[in-house]
């Protein structure tokens, strides 16, 4: 029908219909996804266990929030999986570290979609932003992401460490705050465009779930987050207020981060944000293998450390998302281990990889 109309009228009709066609509409049944971050140190043992659980639960995808390998020195799991178990030079480790992540962590998920965010340990010399984009281009250009860029009117290149994709009325946004140059003007401009489209009437988006490495400012993890550098604090506050505005319009908004190696809910229920009546739901989930931290003062009573696990999100039919911590036992790690993973090394990661 449109092709038979005069061209200007046809184009206007297509423009009017586009917002209704582009986003995936909400479904009537609940579905789940999984998210965690910080798989350095012992992630070669922990991530296969996460993958096993996620696949068994039929989660739609797994979302990694950054810090794949330690980079400042060789991870203990990396050395334990070497044929002779002997230490390697830092030069050799740097050449193999990201490939090790792909082989012993990402590969465990098989055909399940995996989305990657960049962490600060992906910026440790000699690793670079350009090297990251090149090594993980297949993840940054997944079909869901490429299709979304096209729907947004973006050019296919260059690839960026920030991206988003939509599913069933939910916009999943991955931000990059791994380096002290973020949030850059370019990323802020991109994010503002994403949110403007989400807030457009008839966008079909009811829910916004945001994943990043470091928590936005003034959280319960403010001693180890975007508060650490001036640009991060200033732009982080700006971005937080953008999401607050989206929440005020009726969108369900959830902010997820890792960087701190523990689990903590309600991270923005702090005096700073409560005094301004500006609390957005937020979680930290940094339990994918990294050296586990002590909980900071002010953490929610439901917070957990000295454990491994991931966050499972359930998207309900009304667009709300409920999050549950899924913890892993040592037996889970053993049952999902790679054939050459030593049991004593796994046990050491369970009992000693912590403050």
Properties at a glance:
five-stranded mixed β-sheet, six-stranded mixed β-sheet, disordered N terminus, 355 residues, 16% strand, alpha/beta, globular
Question: How is this structure best described in words?
Answer:
This protein is α/β, with parallel strands linked by helices and 355 residues long. 35% of the residues lie in helices and 16% in strands. The protein contains twelve helices and eleven strands. The chain has helices at 7-21, 43-56, 76-80, 90-104, 129-135, 137-140, 143-152, 185-198, 230-248, 271-275, 330-335, 343-352; strands at 31-36, 62-64, 114-116, 163-167, 170-174, 207-211, 252-257, 263-265, 282-285, 308-315, 321-328. The strands form two sheets. A six-stranded mixed β-sheet has the order 4-5-6-7-9-8. A five-stranded mixed β-sheet has the order 3-2-1-10-11. A hairpin with a 2-residue loop joins strand 4 (163-167) and strand 5. The model is unreliable at 1-23 (pLDDT under 50).
Query: Largest sheet, order of strands side by side?
Result: 4-5-6-7-9-8
Distance between the termini: 67 Å
- The strand count comes to 11
Q: Main sheet?
A: 6 strands, mixed
Determine Rg (CA atoms, Å).
Answer: 21 Å
Q: Which structural class do you get from the secondary structure elements?
A: alpha/beta
Query: Which word captures the global form?
Result: globular
Tally of separate helices: 12
The average pLDDT score comes to: 93
Percent in helix: 25-40%
Low-confidence blocks of residues: 1-23
Order of helices and strands: HEHEHHEHHHEEHEHEEHEEEHH
Give the DSSP E fraction (strand runs of 2 or more residues).
15-25%
């Amino acid at each position: 029908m449109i092709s038979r109309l005069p061209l200007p009228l046809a184009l206007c009709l297509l423009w009017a219909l586009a917002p209704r066609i582009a986003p995936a509409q909400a479904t009537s049944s609940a579905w789940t996804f999984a998210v965690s971050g910080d798989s350095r140190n012992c992630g070669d043992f922990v991530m296969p266990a996460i993958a096993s659980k996620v696949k068994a639960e039929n989660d739609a995808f797994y979302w990694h929030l950054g810090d794949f390998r330690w980079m400042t020195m060789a991870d203990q799991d990396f050395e334990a999986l070497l044929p002779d178990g002997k230490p390697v030079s830092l030069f050799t480790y740097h050449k193999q570290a990201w490939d090790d992540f792909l082989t012993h962590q990402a590969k465990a998920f098989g055909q399940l979609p995996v989305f990657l965010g960049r962490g600060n340990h992906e910026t440790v010399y000699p690793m670079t932003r350009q090297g990251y984009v090149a090594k993980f281009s297949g993840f940054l250009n997944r079909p869901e992401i490429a299709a979304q860029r096209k729907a947004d009117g973006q050019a296919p290149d260059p690839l960026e460490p920030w991206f988003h994709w939509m599913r069933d009325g939910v916009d999943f946004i991955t931000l990059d705050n791994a380096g002290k140059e973020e949030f850059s003007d370019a990323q802020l401009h991109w994010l503002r465009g994403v949110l403007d489209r989400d807030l457009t009437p008839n966008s079909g988006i009811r829910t916004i779930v945001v994943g990043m490495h470091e928590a936005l400012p003034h959280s319960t993890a403010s001693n180890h987050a975007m508060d650490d550098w001036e640009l991060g604090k200033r732009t982080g506050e700006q971005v937080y207020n953008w999401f607050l505005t989206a929440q005020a319009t009726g969108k369900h908004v959830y902010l997820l981060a890792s960087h701190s190696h523990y689990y903590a809910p309600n991270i923005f229920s702090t005096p700073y944000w409560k005094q301004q009546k500006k609390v957005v739901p937020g979680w930290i989930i940094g339990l994918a293998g990294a050296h586990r931290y002590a909980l900071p003062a002010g953490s929610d009573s439901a917070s957990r450390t000295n454990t491994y696990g991931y966050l499972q999100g359930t998207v309900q039919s009304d667009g709300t998302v409920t999050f549950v911590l899924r913890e892993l036992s040592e037996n889970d790690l053993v049952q999902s281990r790679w054939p050459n993973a030593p049991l004593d090394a796994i046990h050491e990661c369970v009992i000693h990889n912590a403050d």
